[in-house]
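Q: I'm writing up a methods section and want to include an example of the input and output format. Could you take the sequence below and give the corresponding predicted C-alpha cells, formatted cleanly so I can copy it straight into the document?
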Amino acid sequence: MRSSILADLRYALRGLIKNPVFSLVAVLSLALGIGLNTAVFTVVDGVLFRPKPVSDPGSLVNVFTADTTGEPNGTTSWADFNDLRNTNTVFTDMVGHSVMMAAFGTDGNNRLILGEVVTANYFDALGVPLAMGRGFLPEEERTERGHPVVVLSHRLWQSRFGGRTDVVGQSVVIHSRPYTIVGVAPSTFHGLAPGLDSEIWIPVSMVDDVEPITMNEVDPSPGNTRLERRGHRWLFALGRLRPGVSAAAAEANLDAIMAGLAAAYPASNTDRAASVVPSSKVRLHPLVDAELLPSGLVLLGAVSLVLLVACGNLASMLLARGVSRSKEFALRAALGAPRRRLIRQLLVENVVLALTGGAAGLVVGAWVLRWLATIETPLQLSVPMSFAIDLRVLAFTFLLSLGTGLLFGLLPAWRSSRTNLVSDLKADAPLTGAAGRRFGAGQVLVAGQVAVSLVLLVGGLLMVRSVTAARDIDTGIDARGIALVSVNLGFHGYSEGDARQFFERAVERLSRLPGVSAVGLSDRLPFSPNVHQTTVVVDGRPEATPPTGLTIDNTRVSPAYFDAMGLPVIEGRPFDSHDAPGAVHAAIINRTLAERLWPGESAVGKRLRFRDQSGGLIEVVGVVRDHKVRTLGEAPRAFIHFARAQSEPPWGTFVARTSGAVDATVAAMSREVLALDPNVVLMEAQPFDRLITLSLLPVRLGATLIGSLAALAMLLSAIGLYGLLAFSVSRRTREIGIRMALGADRRRVLLHIMREGLVLVAIGSAVGFVLAALGARTLGAVLHVPALDPVSYIAAAALFGLTAALAAGIPARRAASTNPIEVLKGA
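A: Here is the clean output for your methods example:
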C-alpha cells in the first residue's frame, strides 16, 4: 500500500510538472486564499484563543472590583489589592499588573516603550523562568520609588544589547533615572496583553515613573500617589486558585473582604464588590472581548469566503482537466485499474496541489503579517506584536490545505473517474459528464463564486463609502490649521512646579511661531484613544442625575484652548486668571450637558459637585457648542472642560492654530519644545485632522482588508468564469462550426456564448445580493452609511457586471471567430 501511494505521488508530481500553466494558476489561487486565512488566523488566535504563556493557566482567574451600581469588571487600587492578597483564603497567590508606557533610553537615545508594571511575584507566580538573571524581590515592591530595577524582554535584550551575556547589572534610563537590569525574560514570553510584546517590566513601587494604559478610575481618597490613594484604581489582578476551590467560591470569599473594606473606607469603597472570572474566558477585558470576538469571527469569515472562491476555481479546473483526461482514465480502466484506484490517484494529485498552495500560502501569510505590523498608532510609540507563524499556525495551515485538497478534490475525482470505455476511447469523444450539461457542477461552482464575491464586494464598498461619508461629518471643530505636540514631563522626573514652568515657557515660544494665532493646552483631545471621565451630581438637586451620579467625559484645558480649537464659548465666559488654584472649580460644559441638567435654563452660574460630595463645588462659567468626542459616528455626548490651572498635571498636548502649512508648524513646534529639553520624548506630533483620520482606523482597515479581499475574489471569479467558458468553447468547436455552416452568423454565436456566462452571473448575483444584505447588518456598528446603501449595491452590480462581461467576452469572441470550413475539414 505504501509503495502504491508513493507511486501515485511520483505520478502526480510528473503530471503537474507536465502542465505548468495549470499547476501555477491552481497553486497561486490556493496560495492567496490559504495565505490570507493563515495571516488572519494568526492574529485572531493570538488575540482571542491562544492559551496564556504561563504554567497551569487553568488554575488562574481574573479578579475585578467595581461599583455594584456601575460597569462591572473594573480595576483595583494598590491598597485594595494588598488587602485582598493578604486576607483571602482561596488563592495560593495573587498577581497584579498593568500595561504601561515609559520613556526608555540607552546611550542618551530616548523613545517611548511598551511594558508592564507588576507585583514582585509576577514571574514566579506565573511560572515563567527567566532566561537570565532574576525576577523581582518582595522588598522591591514595598518602598515607593525606592527600587529602580527592570527586567528586559528577550527581543529588547537582543536588539538593544546585542544579546550580551553581561547585561545583568547594567543600567538603562527610565523616567530620567538609571534603572538596574536584573533579568531577561525568555523568548517565549511577551507579557499578559495578547498580541502585544511588553519590552520591559518594572515593580509596582515605581509606577509613578511611567504611565499605565488601563481603566483608570479615581475616587477622592487620602494620598498623593497611585500607591497611596485607595480610591485610585489602575491595577489588574490575577489569582491562582487553591486545589478544589471554584471561581464562585473565590468570588464569595473576596466579596466578604470587600464588604469589610466598604465599612472601613466608606468614601472610596462603598458599594464595591469583587468578581472572579476564569482566565480562559478573558483575553484583554470582558468589555473589550465582547467587541473583539465578533470582529475576529467576521474577519475570519471574510477571508474564508476568499478561500471558498479559490477552492471553487480549483474544483472547476479539476473538473475541466478531468474531462480532458477522459481517454487516459478510460485506457487505465480498460487495462484493469478499478475505479477506487483512479479516485485515489486523483485525490493524491489534488492533495499535492493543495499542500504546495499551502506552502506558498505561508509566504503570503508572513508578508501580510509584516504589513499589519507597519500600521501606525496615534502615539509616537512602537507597538511590537507577537503575531508569528508558530506550530499552531503551521498545524492550522497544514490541516486547511489538506482539507482543501480532499474536500474540493473529491467531486472532480469522483466525476473524472467515471468512464465510458466505448465513447472515451474514440478519437473524438463527445463531451460527457458535468462539463457537458447545461447546468452541471462547473456552472454551479461559478455561480457560487459570483455569489460569494458579491458579498465581499458589497461589504468592501460599504466600508469605502463609510470612510468617505465620515469625512463629511460635522465634528463641531474647525480641524483645519490645528497642529498638535504632546509631552509627558512625568516621564522625565519633573516636579509639579518645574512642569508648570516648562509649559508656560513652551506656550510663550510656540505663540511666537509664524502664522500661529493661538496656543492652548489640554489633557485629552477629542478623538484621542484614552478616555477621561468624572462623576458629578447637581449641587442641591442630586435627583437631577442618577443615584450614583452622572459619569461624564472631561478634560483640563488652558484659557486659549477654545480659540486654538475653534470652539467659541456661546454662553458665559472662557477661563481666565480668576480660575486659579484654591478658587471654586471652574467648568465649561457643552450644550448637550447643559440641556440635560438645566433644560430651558441658563447653565452659567449653576453648580455641580463631585459624586462623594467631598471634592468641592464646580461652577459652570461657560457653555460651548457640541463637538464629537470619541468617534465620528457617536450621538451628542455630554462633555465638561475644567480649568487646567486649578489642577495642572505634568503632561499635556500643545494645540496651536496656524494660518500656515500645518506639517511645517508641527515640525517647528517640535523643535521649540525640544529646545527647552532635548531629552523630552514627544508622545505625539501631528496635525489634528490626522488624529481624526486615525479614529477611523477600524473602518479604514476594514475597507482596505475587505476591499482587497473583494477585489481578489472578483478576480478569481472572473478567472473561473473565463476558464469554464473557454473550456466549453474548446470542447464545442465542432458543434459551433456546424451551427455556423448551417447559417448561424458570428453575432449570434457571440451572443449565445456571452448569454451562457451572464446567466451564471445573474443567478450568482441574485443569491449574492441577498446574502450581502443579510451580512451587512454585522457591519452596522462601524458603518457611516445605511447597511442597504443603494449606491454600494448598484456600484457592486455594475463593477462585477463589467468584469464578468470581459471574462465572458474573450471566449465568446474566440467562438465567434471559428472557421466552419476548417472545422468540417477536420471532422
